[in-house]
Predict the 3D structure of the following.
Amino acid sequence: MQDIALYMNQIGQRARAASRAMARADTAVKNQALLLIAAAIRRDAEVLRAANARDLDAARANGLAEAMLDRLTLSDKAIATMAEGLEQIAALPDPIGEIGNMKYRPSGIQVGQMRVPLGVIGIIYEARPNVTVDAAGLCIKSGNATILRGGSEAIRCNQALAALVQQGLAGAGLPTQAVQVVETTDRAAVGELITMQDYVDVIVPRGGKGLIARLIADATVPMIKHLDGICHVYIDQRADTRRALDVAFNAKCHRYGTCNTMETLLVSREVAAAVLPPLAELYRAKEVELRCDPESHEILADYPYLKPAQADDWDTEYLAPILAIKVVAGIDEAIEHINTHSSQHTDAIITEDYTRAMRFLREVDSASVMVNASTRFADGFEYGLGAEIGISNDKLHARGPVGLEGLTSLKYVVLGQGQVRQ
């Protein structure tokens, strides 16, 4: 691939042509493609594991961080989840062609809105091979074409998955160019993709802060994105202690390298002395480093992995076994801290007080706000979307996990009986 611009232009042309065929595809045909892909993934699980093993070997040789290796690993469970996600997407109602909000106007015309595909979606992601399938499935069901540019560290696995996706498309009679994986690992391909306004309607980036910051600076194609995941759990003075321990442990330690992992724990002063020591015992087993404000530092003075919190700890996505802890006066200070330092991704309150819970839901300005549940649930699969193409903490078009509806737009439709404007 001597000429990256020419190569990407050809991919864009093919995607645009395929998007027109996908926009008119029948629901049954799209579902058939999804089920064929799911079956192929289960059938060729060993092939996928072998490709992933080669990627992991190369990544370790290149010194890839442990959190990124975790994202890159395609376990048996992850393979099964990919197939199940496609089957869930196939079972979901097809939003394309839905007409809603029909109203008669005084002129006699009916005016409503029809849900339609976005067109061509470019997806840029790093060490997550499952994104290849999740993104392909959602784009197929929502009648879009997609151009997938995965990270170089997952190139072998992504290519193997793309081959299965294209087999499923062909088996259902849909254009294989509806899902294309960029074959080159040259970073210049990203620069081309994010400026291909003639062929790409929206970019969805999934990756680290550095990648997304670069795209924000350079992209001319609109994006659906989130920059980072600085997620909070607030333990209220009216929390159930057992619940608080379970949620705060899971939110941090279930997986470290995900955007919905808790990075800051806030605890009401009234319960801090009772809650923090047993919680620290749970974290001790995982060797979690705690970066504490003065009050929590005093309570946990004997904890072996303890550091004083610095100002930038409240604004850091660690993606590692590190947790910032702050004692707050109560819900007012907790909400103020979250709205100041949160990345508007996911934040949770642990409380048995209904009024406080409802206030937290109303006043915390994040894409997902939770009561008595781990932030790790902020995920398209867990939300019943089948899968997600990404998580958006923007406020325009889509917010939170982006599923089928987030990959569509609305156009006005008008039904008349020969009316003319007077």
Remarks:
- The chain has a mean pLDDT of 94.
- The first helix runs from residue 4 to 23.
